[in-house]
Amino acid sequence: MEYKQSLSRRIVFAFVFMTALVGGLFSVSIVGVVHVVEERLISRDLGGELDRIINEDLRNGQGPRLDPGMRFFISDGVGVYAMPPALQNLDDGFHEVFDGELSFHALVHDSDGRRYVLLQDQSDFEAREQVLYAAVVTGYVLSLALAGLLGWLLSRKVMEPVARLARQVRHRDQLLELAPPLAPDYANDEVGELAAAFDYAMGQLHDVLNREKLFTSDVSHELRTPLMVIATSCELLAEDPGLGPRARTQLARISSASEEMRDLVQTFLMLARSRAKSLAIAPQAGVRSIADDLAAQWREPIEEKGLELIYEPGGAPQGQFNAAFLRSVMSNLLRNAMHYTDAGHIRLQLSESGFVVEDSGEGIPEEQRERVFQPFVRGSSQRGEGLGLGLSLVKRICASEGWEVGLQPAKPHGCRFEVRLLKRE
After folding, report:
1. Between 2.30.30.60, 3.30.565.10, 3.30.450.40, 3.40.50.2000, what CATH number should domain 276-420 receive?
2. Which residues does the UniProt record annotate as the domain Histidine kinase (predicted)?
């Protein structure tokens, strides 16, 4: 599983983890040292006292002289020196034994077939030891809390230039042409290198955008002039009484193709720029007026193919929409329906939410319905002279305008494209 915690949290975690590791080892070492020192020092003191009792007091026939808090037992002793059962199974050496709430240090020594046990009350020492342990635990917990606090403060300090750089990069597209370079605002460290990398990338992007602007401007200017010449020539030729029916049919096709290319140039130009302000001042039109024009424009070629165009204006959506985009979407769907329908009908139906283009063609398999909206993807039975960009253009326009386009099968066969026109907020 990929670790997706923020960098600041990882810094805090690293501080706390390192403190927990080092503090834990230090605390365990303190406890271990206390136990070792306790065993060695007290064992030495008790050993010296036990040797004195055995070699001096008992050998001289005297009773053991014991310091306060000490107890002495012999395996064959009687009375107060009788060996308690709990001490009989102890091994030779140092031990800690308990009698109710009392705790003792015990030193066991076997000599000449006899067992000697010397006890020393360690209740006070045990109390001080518990205080020491409590201090160690408290210090350990406080060190973890302090490490977390220091890690948080350090993470804020470390991440502050990164967060500032992120804010600058995020809003840089608004003033891309006027924005100064980022690198001079940062130190010559890793963040400075990142800022320099952003400056380089932004410079490359700025060059690309400038080339794109120049290209779209040149295309818009250079293509409109020959298209206008073609349209004007078609109008002049249409006034020639000597043209025959066949020539007039071809002239109408040229004029229609010229008008369609002019709309496409305008559509591609606006899609390439995709600026909110430029789209807001684009010519607006109602759905009903665009649908009336396209129904009249496409009726003749559709009927020439032996198909029926069913136009149902119904309740068209209210409001105005981008005329070039709306015309391009509806025209591309009608063209696509005509190319892939050999018999039957094509239906253009308006509704309160948008419009529907439906055909009685062979349809599109379910596994290909999403792919047909991708560039250069065409149906299994390719028709017409297109490159498979029509539906891709429809998808791009709908995404740009916030519209929704969907493809469903028609009954009993064919395709049903539904476009929902949503007004921008």
Report:
1. 3.30.565.10
2. 218-425
- What whole-number distance in Å separates Cα of residue 121 and Cα of residue 20? 36
Report yes or no: 416 and 410 within 8 Å, Cβ to Cβ.
yes
78 three-state secondary structure: coil
Q: Note whether 107 and 122 are within 8 A (CB).
A: no
Q: What are phi and psi of 153, to 5 degrees?
A: -65, -45
Residues 384-406: b if buried by 16+ CB within 10 A, e if exposed: eeeeeebbbbbbbbbeebebebe
Architecture per CATH, domain 7-147, reads as: 2-Layer Sandwich (3.30)
Could you read off the pLDDT of 387-420 as tens digits, one per residue?
Answer: 456 788 888 888 888 899 988 888 888 899 999 9
The string of pLDDT tens digits covering residues 145-182 is 998 898 888 888 888 888 888 877 777 654 455 567 77
Q: What tokens does 204 get?
A: 């490359």
pTM comes to 0.49
Residues contacting 29, CB < 8 A, separation 6+: none
